[in-house]
Amino acid sequence: MTTVRRWTEQDGLPGGQKPWWWNAIHYAIDIRLFADSDGDGVGDLDGLRNRLGYLELLGVDTVWLTGVPMTGVGPNVGDPQQAATVLESFERLTSAAHDCDLRVTLDIGVDVADLRQPRAQQELVRTLRFWTDRGVDGFRLALSRRGPAAESDANGVDLETARAIRAALADDSDRLIGSFIEEQHSSRGVWDVDFNRALAETDFDANGIREAISKELTACKEFGTRPGWLVSGRHFPRQVTRFGGGAVGRARAHATTLVLLALPGVVCVDSGEELGLPEVIGNEAEIRTQELLGARVPMPWEGRTPPFGFSDATDLCLSAPEDWVDMTAEAQLESADSTLSLYRQALEIKRTASAENETGDPSVPRELFDDDEVEWYGAPTGCLAFRRGAAGLICALNTSNQRVPLPPGELLLSSAPLEGGQLPPDSAAWLATS
Predict the structure, then answer these.
(1) Dist. CA 129–CA 13, nearest whole Å
(2) What is this structure's pTM?
(3) Domains, the chain, ordered by start
């Protein structure tokens, strides 16, 4: 089969380093729902820029943007005044993000059927070049097929298009191009990272979760792409709601988070996921007016009343419920038992384990996340446990209704307090090899 040139582990960068995105934590943001800077009730680029300090505090690596107002903006400018305003805000955002050591990546929608046409290929390449010139570090191509099937390879992506895109970005050897495929199409073996929906569609069941992970790791190894994991997003219900809601749903979401962050590859965290937010169901008119998928509401930041610091406007079509007062970012930063605190602890462990240790201090376990091999343990019914290589991180998950013994190792973090030294139901734990 014809192949397309992409970054592989064997390519290497100066000093033998892997590209920045190899194990990156991407934070996916719908601009419209994140932070409103001008009081019109809709999130915007300047609002996000004003909240970059929060993302530094959280510990993510990349700001992954969706919902960027690109109408009339790009290589084919519509309204010059509107385009200039948006681009000025966008360039301020990318500059500020880079100052915070955050990368900026962008979602680009692509119709596979259209890409049969050379003109469409050229337009896509021009679009990618346009945004890289303005500080974008990578792209996730949202591939769909709205028209008739194209003359393409078995992966559903035109190979000439892939070559053209790679050629357009040839000067940037570590520029990320990933894909998220709608309608179950696949681009295996074409791009750097395959962002898959396997865990976002899996019940809270150890066997199902293990099967989904194993299948994806096998496929990525076969095709030479990096796995990209997500458990919720614009197309999928939030974890808390999907796993039953309330305290049970939140406990299961916490446990799944530790499994997700323990896996090799790229992880995509959906904005608000780190707060343990559930779905909010508005009426049909509200959903249609907001053009929201899955009834998402704006990010709750601080204060005691809706819209909790998202905007100065108070008459939003779909605002956060009043009982979210303890779920705001401000409230959760002050609680050691919050979902936000769990994310921060887990990401700090990953960051510490991956940091360069110039002093040779053995207390920094850098090898925990180094090995990409996943070795499965035998586990009690309703449970799973795996280790990253021979001496890496151990992750254990209990989806049963009984508490179970932990694998041997030093406890680093658990999603719930242990009970008699054992892992309780609906929880997970990280351990370091003894």
Answers:
(1) 22
(2) 0.88
(3) 7-350 (3.20.20.80), 366-432 (2.60.40.1180)
